[in-house]
TrEMBL record:
CDD domains assigned: GTP_cyclohydro2
Keyword Iron carried by entry: no
Domain of life from the UniProt record: Bacteria
The protein's name in its UniProt record: GTP cyclohydrolase-2
Function: Catalyzes the conversion of GTP to 2,5-diamino-6-ribosylamino-4(3H)-pyrimidinone 5'-phosphate (DARP), formate and pyrophosphate.
EC number annotated for this UniProt entry: 3.5.4.25
UniProt keyword terms in alphabetical order: GTP-binding, Hydrolase, Metal-binding, Nucleotide-binding, Riboflavin biosynthesis, Zinc
Catalytic activity: GTP + 4 H2O = 2,5-diamino-6-hydroxy-4-(5-phosphoribosylamino)-pyrimidine + formate + 2 phosphate + 3 H(+)
A GO CC term assigned to this protein in UniProt: cytosol
Record-stated family: Belongs to the GTP cyclohydrolase II family.
Keyword Hydrolase: yes
Cofactor binding, note field: Binds 1 zinc ion per subunit.
The gene coding this protein: ribA
Length: 368
């Protein structure tokens, strides 16, 4: 993991990293934030022409559905804003180049995994290091100018199971749950921290523990954004867990369904231009839901919780915990309030992502 963590920082600064493969090392650079000369510079460094790796969600949105991410050979002069437009623009010009798409190989797919892990747009410039440039690139790795990540480590960079560290805790009395304790966990890349809010003294022996998995939403949780129902769900969950006699709320650093705040704001702008919540994410290259719940499973293990009563409308959360070995004894709905701003968002979640929201969409909401 160590090299991956360092690579994430270089990528977030817009620098290339090397995905190491004995036969054909691959230079990789994010498209997001790339300088106007990025393609030319990368070509010089690698001694071969760079190509663009696009995710299958982006390709499907562009009208080229495929089973895997694909590589697009770059026509001469495609740089800067035009490159960004092809990679993640709202009005892309893919045109005739689409004929040149080929399936991405494992190292090229790993390049996209690194972008996602770094919370960048999942589109990458990649260039194979030509034999004539191998010694020069190896020298850059040796002197620390360029970071090398083994291909398998890059491919697994989103797997964090067992790597979460329990860091610190404190008693935090809440308005709706006086007897609460916050326990902070940190992922190895240092980018993401998750908090377990333990309300009361849930006794695992006494039966399933009331549990809420809440994905961070800065706009909704903190500012009461009307575009979603997150803030209300958060506060309702705390009150509900308290009313159930105590339990746990995991506050997970999965802003924007795992795409990060920067990308969620981009997605909101696309929604204002007419896309729904899922298509907006696809247009940026993301899946409809990028969240992974291994961190939640690890936090529950650390808290000694194996059987839960889950407060959610999202069947994926039930499935993810079950797959992680947690017994979900029952599911309880948890609603916010419908308004003119979040109606389209909630309808799309129900109709296209299988969320169980009849209670709120038919007007019967809301608890509290
Ligand atoms: N990408 C994206 N994320 C959004 C949008 N609106 C809200 N979110 C994020 O969606 C997540 C909502 O999380 P949750 O409330 O935990 O989950 P949920 O999947 O709706 O499921 P339950 O509330 O448990 O039924 C948060 O991370 C929000 O930041 C949007 O339009 N686009
Ligand atoms: Zn929200």
């Amino acid at each position: 993991m160590h090299q991956v963590e360092r690579a994430i920082f270089d990528l977030r600064r817009g620098l290339p990293v090397l995905i190491g493969e004995a036969s054909a090392p691959l230079l990789v650079q994010p498209v997001e934030g790339a300088a106007d000369t990025a393609v030319a510079t990368l070509a010089d460094r690698a001694g071969s022409p760079p190509a663009l790796v696009l995710s299958r969600h982006r390709l499907a949105w562009l009208g080229h559905p495929r089973a895997t991410p694909a590589l697009l050979a770059l026509p001469p002069g495609l740089e800067g804003e035009r490159l960004a437009a092809v990679a993640f623009g709202a009005e892309p010009e893919l045109g005739v180049w689409a004929d040149a798409l080929v399936d991405a190989d494992p190292a090229e797919r790993a390049a996209l995994a690194l972008m996602r892990r770094a919370l960048l747009i999942p589109a990458a410039l990649v260039a194979r290091v030509a034999p004539a440039r191998r010694d020069a690139v190896a020298a850059e790795v040796a002197d620390g100018t360029l970071l090398e990540v083994p291909a398998e480590a890059a491919a697994r960079c989103q797997e964090t199971h067992g790597l979460l560290k329990r860091i610190s805790e404190a008693r935090i009395p809440l308005e709706d749950a006086f007897d609460s304790r916050f326990i902070l966990f940190r992922e190895p890349d240092g980018l993401r921290e998750h908090v377990a809010v333990v309300i009361g003294e849930p006794q695992a022996a006494a039966g399933p523990v009331p549990l809420r998995l809440h994905s961070a939403c800065l706009t909704g949780d903190l500012f009461g954004s009307l575009r979603c129902d997150c803030g209300e769900q958060l506060r309702n969950a705390v009150a509900e867990i308290e009313a159930l006699g105590g339990g746990v709320l995991l506050y997970l650093a999965q802003e924007g369904r795992g795409i990060g705040l920067a990308n969620k704001l981009r997605a909101y702008t696309r929604q204002d231009a007419g896309l729904d919540t899922l298509d907006a994410d696809h247009s940026l290259g993301f899946a409809e839901d990028e969240r992974r719940y291994a961190v939640a499973v690890d936090m529950l293990a650390s808290l000694g919780i194996h059987r839960v009563q889950l407060l959610t409308n999202n069947p994926r959360k039930v499935a993810a915990l079950t797959a992680g070995g947690i017994e979900v004894v029952s599911r309880q709905a948890l609603y916010g309030t419908l308004n003119d701003h979040n109606r389209r968002y909630l309808s799309a979640k129900a109709e296209r992502a299988g969320h169980l929201l009849e209670g709120v969409l038919n007007g019967k909401a809301t608890r509290r």
